[in-house]
Each structure stands twice: as structure tokens, then as C-alpha cells.
Model the fold of this input.
Amino acid sequence: MIVLDTHVWIWWADSPKLLSTRARRAIDEAETIGISSFSCYEVARSAARGRITLHPGASKWIGMALNLPKVVLLDLTPQIAVTAAELDWKHGDPFDRMIVGTAIEHDARVVSKDHRIRLFRSARAIW
Done:
């Protein structure tokens, strides 16, 4: 399993050419592609704020993107919340912390372009 950062999920679903070769290969070769439930909120909120445009709208886009092959929605569990809260990482973005905590609890690597995630060794990031 791999876990996609929110922007990678959007790009994979809508604009795969934005992905690096390594990211595309990791997604193609993964048996399971995990999406944190926090990414659903992050996508919907970005659309509501006008930062991204989703067709045919956030709710339907999320439903369609969660039904892509090999995709599994990874819900927040108490252990993921604790892991994310206790990360020895100065980065305070709660969404990034939850995505990384989700990956750690599922013993998965994170696919992300975000340099803060890529520099955090525990994320075992791929880009």
C-alpha cells in the first residue's frame, strides 16, 4: 500500500502528467492506493474556497476519485490521531500530519511533492 498526499490524489485523478515519473510508477505498481479521509475534506474545502475547480463538483468528484481502481479510503482511527499528534516533526499542518500518521499506521509510504513531507524521514516519501 501507498498513501497519496491530497495534491497527488487530485493530479493522479485529473492531470497525471503533473506527477513525477517515480510517483506515477509507485502508483501504477501499488497493490492498494490509500486515501486519507482527511484528503476528502481538504479537496472539498479547496474547491469551496475556489483554489481548485472540480468537475462535476466536489461531492461527485470525490465519489468518482474514491472509486478509481485499487483505491481504499483510510478512515481516521484513534491510533492514527495519536500517531499524528505525537510525531517528532516541527511541521504543524494538521492535514499533512494526519496523512503521514495514516501512512505510518498502515506501514505505507507517502507519495508527495511537498518538500516538508519529503524531508520528514518517517514519511518515507516518494516523489
Notes: The CA atoms of residues 44 and 59 lie 7 Å apart.
